[in-house]
């Protein structure tokens, strides 16, 4: 029998992706939807402005949106709330004994909250055992990273493991769906580039180093590397593209880097439904990856990388692309939940990896 789950923030861009990706999911069944007071009490189909290119499932359209309170909610909650609301509501659900699989940045950098990409740092999960709600009644919060950090971190992870990384320079071209709905006004973004996304550069830097860091008992020590990020909004619907330069700790040839990416399959054998068979897809064409044609590689869960070449300032440079609302949000959270299921940890119990 599939596990009943709830979605907090079900009407937003990420909430809609959850509904789309969970429609035929083998482990989870959407049983509860919540959004703001303006949507609560309405049929989902009446409250949502459905923006995805697959039909809104009829069963979901007919569900009534519940108030965003833990009473009556399932014990597994996928959360897609704005940060300020998440800061207030997610702990209420964890305190009520729910596993909260969160997309927001509210708790990503908290010492006892795992910030996880299953292929990269599943071994950080046990720090959730330190959360007060976990000790009290089994509830906890697990987070997935910012949509601009996730593709970058996937591509860097095998290089950190094999060669070490000393410095990271990244400049992003981020899609408008990353700003939620209705997001950036059309007058600001059509035919334009906006070289500012509030708090994004700080989040990208801190989260990247934490994700690539190592667990030391009850805490995570961030990777000891220098990093700078430039974040830009561009008139692309979905898919964040990033120009990256890195300095390695130990020298590597082009062949060794390509081999590290090709061989990176840390979830092979776990058989998680959302996991891409090839997490990093290298594209050899001169002008790839591109968001319009490459964002859905690995059903939107792969990080694409191309244009690997020597960098005259650091060692190597390349281009990364990942889908911001699938790999960068709802798909990442579902993969985290699948990993917790495979570890037997969506029910109250000690998490060990
Ligand atoms: P969004 O489109 O603005 O959706 C926000 C959702 O929160 C809506 O369902 C909204 O419901 C609900 N909400 C607002 N106020 C609420 C309240 N007081 N109580 C309960 N629900 C409330 O935002 P989004 O793009 O889906 O992003 C959601 C979260 O995911 C954010 O923290 C964002 O930073 C993060 N994230 C987004 C992306 C992306 O690519 N979009 C990627 C990674 C992470 P109503 O419709 O009723 O207002």
Structural class: alpha/beta
CATH topology of the largest domain: Dihydrodipicolinate Reductase, domain 2
Q: What can be said about the biggest beta sheet?
A: 6 strands, mixed
Average the pLDDT over all residues and give the rounded result. Answer: 96
What does this structure look like?
The chain is an alpha/beta fold. The chain is 29% helix and 21% strand. It contains twelve helices and 13 strands. It has helices spanning 13-22, 44-47, 58-61, 83-95, 118-121, 132-137, 147-163, 186-189, 200-211, 254-262, 291-294, 326-342; strands spanning 3-8, 28-34, 76-79, 99-102, 140-143, 165-173, 214-216, 219-221, 226-230, 240-248, 280-283, 303-310, 316-322. Strands 9-6-10-13-12-11 form a six-stranded mixed sheet. A five-stranded parallel sheet has the order 2-1-3-4-5, sandwiched between helices. Strands 7-8 form a two-stranded antiparallel sheet. Helix 1 crosses helix 12. It is globular. The two termini are 25 Å apart. The relative contact order is 0.15. Mean pLDDT is 96; it is low at 348-353. NADP nicotinamide-adenine-dinucleotide phosphate (NAP) is lined by residues 9-15, 35-36, 38-39, 68, 80-83, 85-86, 103-104, 147, 177-178, 180-181, 324-325, 328-329.
Characteristic key phrases:
353 residues; Dihydrodipicolinate Reductase, domain 2; 2 domains; disordered C terminus; binds NADP nicotinamide-adenine-dinucleotide phosphate
Secondary structure: elements and pairs:
Blueprint: E1 3-8, H1 13-22, E2 28-34, H2 44-47, H3 58-61, E3 76-79, H4 83-95, E4 99-102, H5 118-121, H6 132-137, E5 140-143, H7 147-163, E6 165-173, H8 186-189, H9 200-211, E7 214-216, E8 219-221, E9 226-230, E10 240-248, H10 254-262, E11 280-283, H11 291-294, E12 303-310, E13 316-322, H12 326-342
Parallel strand pairs: 1-2, 1-3, 3-4, 4-5, 6-9, 11-12
Antiparallel strand pairs: 6-10, 7-8, 10-13, 12-13
The structure holds NADP nicotinamide-adenine-dinucleotide phosphate.
Residues 9-15, 35-36, 38-39, 68, 80-83, 85-86, 103-104, 147, 177-178, 180-181, 324-325, 328-329 line the site of NADP nicotinamide-adenine-dinucleotide phosphate (NAP).
């Amino acid at each position: 029998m599939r596990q009943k789950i709830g979605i907090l923030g079900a009407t937003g861009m990420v909430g809609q992706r959850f509904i789309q990706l969970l429609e035929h999911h083998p482990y989870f069944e959407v049983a509860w939807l919540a959004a703001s007071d303006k949507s609560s009490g309405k049929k989902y189909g009446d409250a949502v402005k459905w923006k995805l290119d697959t039909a809104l499932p009829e069963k979901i359209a007919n569900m009534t949106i519940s108030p965003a309170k833990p009473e009556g909610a399932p014990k597994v909650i996928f959360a897609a709330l704005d940060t300020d609301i998440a800061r207030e509501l997610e702990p209420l659900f964890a305190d009520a004994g729910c596993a909260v699989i969160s997309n927001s940045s509210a708790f990503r950098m908290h010492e006892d909250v795992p910030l996880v990409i299953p292929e990269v740092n599943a071994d950080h999960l046990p720090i959730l055992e330190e959360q007060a709600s976990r000790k009290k009644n089994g509830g906890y919060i697990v987070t997935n990273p910012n949509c601009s950090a996730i593709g970058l971190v996937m591509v860097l992870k095998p290089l950190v493991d094999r060669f070490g990384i000393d410095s990271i320079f990244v400049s992003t071209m981020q899609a408008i769906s990353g700003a939620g709905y209705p997001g950036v006004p059309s007058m600001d973004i059509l035919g334009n580039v906006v070289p500012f996304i509030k708090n994004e550069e700080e989040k990208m830097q801190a989260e990247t180093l934490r994700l690539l860091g190592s667990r030391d008992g009850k805490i995570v020590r961030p990777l000891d590397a220098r990093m700078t990020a430039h974040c830009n909004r561009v008139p692309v619907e979905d898919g964040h593209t990033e120009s990256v330069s890195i300095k390695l700790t130990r020298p590597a040839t082009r062949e060794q880097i390509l081999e590290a990416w090709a061989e990176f399959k840390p979830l092979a054998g776990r058989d998680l439904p959302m996991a891409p068979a090839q997490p990093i897809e290298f594209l050899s064409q001169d002008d790839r990856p591109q968001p319009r044609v490459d964002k859905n590689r690995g059903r939107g869960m792969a990080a694409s990388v191309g244009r690997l070449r020597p960098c005259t300032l650091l060692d190597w440079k390349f281009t990364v692309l990942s889908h911001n609302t699938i790999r960068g949000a709802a798909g990442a959270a579902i993969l985290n939940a699948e990993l917790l299921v495979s570890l037997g940890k969506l029910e109250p119990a000690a998490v060990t990896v």
